Amino acid sequence: EAGVAQSPRYKIIEKRQSVAFWCNPISGHATLYWYQQILGQGPKLLIQFQNNGVVDDSQLPKDRFSAERLKGVDSTLKIQPAKLEDSAVYLCASSLVGGSSHEQFFGPGTRLTVL
Amino acid sequence: RKEVEQDPGPFNVPEGATVAFNCTYSNSASQSFFWYRQDCRKEPKLLMSVYSSGNEDGRFTAQLNRASQYISLLIRDSKLSDSATYLCVVNTGKLIFGQGTTLQVKP
Predict the structure, then answer these.
(1) Tally of CB atoms within 10 A around A6
(2) Torsional sign, CA A65, A22, A47, A74
(3) To probe the interface with A, which of B43, B48, B96, B97 has the most A CB atoms within 10 Å?
(4) Bridge partners of residue B60, in order along the sequence
(5) Residue B80 burial (10 A CB sphere; 0-12, 13-18, 19+)
(6) Which of A26, A32, A45, B15 has its CA 20 to 30 A from that of B93?
(7) pLDDT at residue B93 greater than cutoff 90
(8) How far is the alpha carbon of B90 from chain A, nearest alpha carbon, in Å?
């Protein structure tokens, strides 16, 4: 079974530039998550989608971050404009159904460096 | 105070040793609990769920103490391949990850 796919794997940009990340969850998984993992910390949830609807975006910095999952399958996360503190690994995860008691499967992540 | 607290380590142990990691959480309404494993520069993967009755999976034993809001992971007979970061995870309606405890098993 194919896992969660993410691209690009690495991205280096300068501050104030824009960047977008793409995620394709495991086939049939209704719930999709975006996490931010800063070096030395655990992943922090940015946004959760159930199909194409947002379930939780309380920790998404909405002045600069946006995410969409238009057809309820793949998703994009955008940062505009980027700040130095956005340097992190952005992990996408999916689960079969909603409710965080279900196992979440993570993609390999996109490592973002903001200079 | 962090919602989920772990000692970041690193814990350096010889092969065959028994090692225990602890984790505390602040939200008494937390619903479920997990340990995830994260290898260096890789994604987290579920290691095991944690139940009040305790649960065991081979060399790994997890315990939950709801009264003390405390979770533990015991690894017996450590292998070189156990070297990784172990993330304590609490479900409060969403998953809250601790910062992780790094284990390095030496030959």
Answers:
(1) 23
(2) positive
(3) B43
(4) B57, B75
(5) exposed
(6) A26
(7) no
(8) 9
Q: Measured between alpha carbons, how far is residue B67 from residues A100, B34, B90 in Å?
A: 22, 17, 15
Instruction: Give me the amino acid identity at B93.
Output: G
What lies within 8 Å, CB to CB, of A109 at 6+ separation is: A6, A9, A37, A89, A90, A91, A92, B43
Give the single-character DSSP code of A103: P
Q: d(Cα B8, Cα B104) in Å, to the nearest integer?
A: 12
Instruction: Return the amino acid letter for A3.
Output: G
A1: Cα within 13 Å, side-chain hemisphere: 8
pLDDT in tens, B48-73: 999 888 899 999 999 999 999 999 99
